[in-house]
Every structure is written in C-alpha cells, then in structure tokens.
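Per-record layout

source: Planococcus donghaensis MPA1U2
name: N-acetyltransferase domain-containing protein
length: 69
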Amino acid sequence: MSVIKNYRRAGLAKRMIASLEIWAKEQGYRQLVLETNNDWYSAINFYKDRQYQRYLNDGMCSHFKKSLS
C-alpha cells in the first residue's frame, strides 16, 4: 500500500488500512500480514502505530502481522 507523495499526511493511508481491517474481519480473516522495505521508516512506524507486530526482518524487508480477533 502506498499513497502518492502529494497526498500523504492527509489520513488516506489510515482510512485505507482501517477499511481493509474491517473488510478482512467481515470476511472471516483472523490475521493480516504485510511487509515493507527496511529503509521506509515512515511505513514501519505507521504499521507499528496500528499495532502490527514485526515478526521477521530478512535484511531487506520487515514483515508484520496483526490479529483481527
């Protein structure tokens, strides 16, 4: 997931991920899994702020998961 630079800091990513979490939960999913580049610090912090837990760092990417229960 990414937001075009000119539209960042407007809450779009927050709304997108919140909508994804609601939809996934309604569909019966119990967990979301994602990854981002290790040098994209703003994305890492964004996911951490939303209670995504890093479970793997492979040197290039950080992998996160979040329980929907």
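summary: Strands lie at 31-37, 53-57, 61-67. The chain is about 35% helix and 30% strand.
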